[in-house]
């Protein structure tokens, strides 16, 4: 039986060791492995494709995964750049926002992680907190130091009762890692919050009425040893399988 193809968008990064200006296409291997473990076939999508090829790549896959990464360019939501906002990549922002809108309009399964959640929120009309430490009061650590393991469980997420997130994970509280510099400020109108940290931070959303359209602010790819986290990938692949054209 043909496996559902899960398109994972990639980041363009400079690799000066390969020569000045050499850009590489990168992705978290952990996302690739989590999709494979769920029975899907991961396929990387470059964000530097020409528009017609981006569309063709999107149509080729059965579902999309928008992974984590750097800060989102504030011009995408018409905000002034905060001094603490890091390096941004407008090409990637635009490609991923386009995919997020296509998937929303066409009810294509989508799973968005960390930066992916922020991209989806902006694509659908929301805004972002550009620098959590300076712009969001909290007693929690949402962006712990890089010296710590990526599977460190930093804070809890209260799952909205009756949400798809609760059905998928089977849990009312999730213990999650937290490696985000930015976050949702104003929620995009169509999205519904499905998970919050104890400080009120929006940690998960879904697009009601769609078959499978989920965002999470943490990094489940580093937590697949926890059953509830692998279940997110299993549900994505299952949704893609059910949406495959025979
Ligand atoms: Mn967090």
Mean pLDDT equals 96
What is the strand content? 15-25%
Shape: globular
Helix and strand run: EEEHEHEHEHEHEHEEEEEH
Your description of this structure?
- The protein is of the alpha/beta class.
- It is 29% helix and 22% strand.
- It contains seven helices and 13 strands.
- The chain has helices spanning 29-37, 51-60, 90-106, 115-123, 132-135, 164-169, 227-243, and strands at residues 5-9, 11-14, 23-26, 41-45, 63-66, 110-113, 128-129, 155-159, 173-176, 183-184, 192-196, 202-206, 213-216.
- The strands form three sheets. A nine-stranded mixed sheet has the order 4-1-5-6-13-12-11-8-9, with helices on both faces. A two-stranded antiparallel sheet has the order 2-3.
- α3 (90-106) links the parallel β5 and β6 (110-113).
- The radius of gyration is 17 Å and the shape is globular.
- The protein binds manganese (II) ion (MN).
- The site of manganese (II) ion has 9 residues, from loops.
Précis, in short:
With 246 residues, the protein is α/β, with parallel strands linked by helices. It has helices spanning 29-37, 51-60, 90-106, 115-123, 132-135, 164-169, 227-243, and strands at residues 5-9, 11-14, 23-26, 41-45, 63-66, 110-113, 128-129, 155-159, 173-176, 183-184, 192-196, 202-206, 213-216. Strand 12 and strand 13 (213-216) form a beta hairpin.
């Amino acid at each position: 039986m043909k496996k559902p193809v899960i398109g994972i968008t990639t980041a363009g990064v400079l690799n000066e060791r390969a020569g000045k200006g050499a850009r590489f296409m990168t992705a978290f291997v952990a996302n690739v492995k989590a999709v494979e473990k769920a029975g899907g076939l991961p396929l990387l999508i470059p964000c530097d494709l020409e528009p017609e090829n981006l569309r063709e790549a999107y149509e080729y896959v059965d579902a999309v995964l928008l992974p984590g990464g750097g800060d989102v360019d504030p011009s995408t939501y018409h905000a002034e750049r905060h001094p603490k906002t890091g390096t941004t990549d407008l090409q990637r922002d635009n490609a991923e926002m386009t995919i997020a809108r296509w998937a929303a309009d066409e009810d294509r399964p989508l799973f968005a992680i960390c930066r992916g959640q922020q991209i989806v929120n902006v694509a659908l009309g929301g805004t972002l907190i550009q620098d959590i430490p300076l712009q969001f009061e909290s007693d929690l650590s949402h962006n712990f130091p890089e010296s710590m393991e990526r599977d460190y469980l930093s804070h809890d997420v209260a799952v909205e009762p009756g949400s798809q997130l609760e059905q998928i994970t089977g849990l009312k509280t999730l213990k999650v890692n937290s490696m985000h510099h930015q976050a949702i400020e104003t929620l995009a109108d169509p999205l519904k919050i499905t998970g919050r940290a104890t400080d009120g931070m929006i940690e998960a959303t879904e697009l009601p009425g769609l078959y499978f359209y989920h965002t999470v602010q943490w990094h489940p790819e580093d937590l697949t040893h926890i059953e509830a986290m692998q279940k997110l990938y299993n549900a994505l692949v299952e949704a893609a399988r059910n949406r495959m054209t025979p």
